[in-house]
């Protein structure tokens, strides 16, 4: 509210009431709006936790691949030089020698191509895009793609109360009128209250409710009422209607002389009325403790106005505390008679009122919120409530939601901002509720959690002033229904139904993205290790690589493009929310992944060595062709099927049943099927291009069977090689 004490208009705001002449003192970035926008433009270029880890993984894999490529090329070149040295033709190089060197160089380049995880960005993008599409169905609109995975690493959620943890649909459920406390949770109770109160009290109560309000009651077709205004105002108006009041008749019966809208400093609002029978009356309504302090009289149980004695004052204050402890928002209604001739230029009196009564307004906790908070806590995510509400109300709601525990702290914003840095460092880990907080308090809390404690923080917000905190957080969650446009612009994800349970769903999808990318990396590293070691070993031992450049590129396509498509689209499971968050410092390649990678790599490496050593004699015994081309084709085919079955194993890094839910993932089945189909085409029909030859049915069965052996080996690894998760 603009007054003589506070004569400043903020740019970007709208004039809701009144008229004035305005002098512009600052423009652009010097205004408060400009400073807010400057806060939003600070930083914002930080990489997400997963991006940091993936960059490290990609760099390591690339360096290892380059090392093996250089060594392999050097060994192969050494072989040809040694041969020519022994033949005495070191100085004579033919075109065939040049082609041989070129082939060796192609093998080295292919090793680099296979090693470099160019499919990693594709896997990340596919997984994020898939999650983004599915999250939209779950009432979460993702504005920044990276936010899908960041939420999976979240260790803290700082949530608003009103509208997020609660429904933001308020109703009057208790009252203290004529010094008597009544339960109004059933609408019939409110109707009967009107008959229990003296008519003079009902009349003045309805006059206060319907005239001292920023809301409105609109009569629609068939006599139905529509309530307009804030949730608090509509709750009071609904209470008035249940008492049998007529909004339009009451408003028309009195003439409004002066209105003072709700003031966040005074925490109350007022109106001055000229009564139909003569006389002037002022009504006020606001925070119970403030309005009650302005009263020196009260309406007693007989409907008479009496002096507000100490005993009565204590009774009313105890009632306020009791209602607040029951998670109710309390308002006090009061009035006073004024002298005739009241001038609209005068201020409405600030004291001398008669207390009509106190109402307790319930904003119910959303269904499922307590379970969602418990799910977060079991998943290692700390949930904190940050609200501007009364601390008793905030604590009661927090206990009802399961946020506030016995060892947690509830603190008020003014107390929080008065603490020193050392005190904050000791206090912040214990804070579970912050009441009467300002947007700056929320920003400070988030900044300390991120920088001092290295937490990954998600923040909810709906107001324009929440924008800095939303921007400061690792992931900002704006409310789609109650949120302002500025808040939505600053957020990474918009919660379309303003529901805390949806935030938990976002976290689940975020973890799914993280795990899916881990599955892909496990899958890719297994192929990398086998391809690099086999080619390196064969080059050193025989002077040639068993897998040609074309074959390695086909394997690379399987593990990059098709592998990313298959593993990046796995849907989330409830098991994901039973793990602790990875945070910023968790290892991306876990001990479980290393066990699976090394176990499968060793198996595949031994298989290929066995085929190189005994493959010809084995297939000769079974009447099959045994040329070098046939053997190399069998090795290539076996390697592909070991990849293929390992792709199925990679669906679950810890669970033994890797086939659970596989029929529900049509993309995975399509990828595996198409890989099998194209492998047949390459072996049987593209021999000249891929350096392969058609195989017999028995040879195909052997290749598939050897590849399948990777699945029981994976089961044995998970059962008998336990690692700490």
TrEMBL record:
InterPro entries: ATPase_P-typ_cation-transptr_C, ATPase_P-typ_cyto_dom_N, ATPase_P-typ_P_site, ATPase_P-typ_TM_dom_sf, HAD-like_sf, HAD_sf, P-type_ATPase_IIB, P_typ_ATPase. Residues 545-718 form the Cation-transporting P-type ATPase C-terminal domain. Its EC number is 7.2.2.10. Keywords: ATP-binding, Calcium, Calcium transport, Calmodulin-binding, Ion transport, Magnesium, Membrane, Metal-binding, Nucleotide-binding, Translocase, Transmembrane, Transmembrane helix, Transport. The chain crosses the membrane at residues 60-81, 101-131, 594-614, 629-646, 667-685, 697-717. It is an enzyme of class 7 (translocase). GO terms for molecular function: ATP binding; ATP hydrolysis activity; calmodulin binding; metal ion binding; P-type calcium transporter activity. It is a multi-pass membrane protein. GO terms for cellular component: plasma membrane. It catalyses: Ca(2+)(in) + ATP + H2O = Ca(2+)(out) + ADP + phosphate + H(+). Catalyzes the hydrolysis of ATP coupled with the transport of calcium. PANTHER family: CALCIUM-TRANSPORTING ATPASE 2, PLASMA MEMBRANE-TYPE, CATION TRANSPORTING ATPASE. This is Calcium-transporting ATPase. It comes from Sesamum angustifolium. The lineage of its organism: Eukaryota, Viridiplantae, Streptophyta, Embryophyta, Tracheophyta.
